[in-house]
Known about the structure:
Blueprint: H1 7-33, H2 39-47, H3 55-58, H4 64-88, H5 94-112, H6 117-127, E1 138-143, E2 147-152, H7 158-163, H8 168-182, E3 188-194, E4 197-202, H9 208-234, H10 241-274, H11 276-309, H12 315-348, H13 351-371, H14 373-388
Antiparallel strand pairs: 1-2, 2-4, 3-4
Helix pairs in contact: 1-4, 2-4, 5-8, 9-10, 9-12, 9-14, 10-11, 10-13, 10-14, 11-12
One fe (ii) ion (FE2) binds near residues 212, 216, 263 and 337.
Amino acid sequence: MSAFLGPIHTWLFGKITLQNEIIEEIIELATKQQTDRDWAGSLNQQFGVFPVGDLESIIDTTNIHGWLQKHVIQVEHKLATLITQIQKEQLLSLEAIQSVFYEQGKKQSKQNNPSSLADLWKLIQDTMLDGMPCDHALEVMEQTENRILWKRRVCVHGDYWKQAGGDINLYYTLRDSFLQGLIASLPYELKREEDATYEIRQLDSIDSVELMMEEHQNILRMLQVVRNACYQLLQGADVVYEDFYEMIDFIKFYADDHHHGKEEKILFDEMVKHLGKMGSNLITHGMLVEHEWGRLFMSDLKEALQQLKDGREEAKLDIIASAIGYVKHLTRHIEKEDQLIYQFAKNHLQPEILKQVNLDTFQFEKEATTAGVQKKYQQLLENLERKYVC
Ligand SMILES: [Fe+2]
Ligand SMILES: [Fe+2]
């Protein structure tokens, strides 16, 4: 290390360089949309070229603070100007720009692998540019092993966005995407408490088997809805197509993709790998076959609904047969899993494998929560229960 440079200078230049990388990634995306536009040239002309090389060889050692500050200002202007222009010309969607920030956050998390909330907070400070250290832009209000609360004491970015004619709120939305990327594979959740106050807290660890047994209860509630709807048909009621399609939607995306998806990709996969012939037989020739069988009932139900729509009155019989066939089949399947399969897994999988199952389940749930899966199907279930279950 140079006699002039300290760790704080390298640390700050790392943050400036990361923001420059984000700018370059956005330029690359924008250039794909408009190949003859020289975004980099135009930004360089306005704000100067970003220096390349070892910090020691590029920095002005007679004015280290001033040189670093000049490049903080440079990348702040470039980011604000670039994004504001792209948004005004509608060249890229907000989601596309957000995903650059999100992926960069994920990359930083993967490279640094923070193993505690303290590590994560350090990573946030090591990667997010908030002016010069003397600006003290962020202030920690509370920090424990499981929770960190901080606030933005002063906004050091607003002027750049104002000068670019842009919206500072957009910048903070993009920073949120970066933070979400940082914690994407970690057991933490981020909340913006108020406009300038943030909280990251550790989520309680998930017990995969317990969670899937709770999901069984939701699925059984839907099976009751299906049974009651079929009983109404038997008593002469008309088929309410939109309700049946909602039941099928729940069964396809919640019971099958969300619940069976977790079983097949996580728990059952580990059982096949680690529980010998018995585990392999129970899963491959038992549970997986039964999942397929359930899908057949659903495809028969959809076909029967279409036939009735096309005027074949007798198809009502096939609607009831396939729907009730599914109800009985899945009820038995759930009983088997609750009483035998899950218990066999819990009793025989090694603790480190069960821990991995829980971690993978946590990740699966987190992605589904982001996509709104659990909330959507909980509401759909409650709506149908109001109609069909007294
Ligand atoms: Fe299953
Ligand atoms: Fe299940």
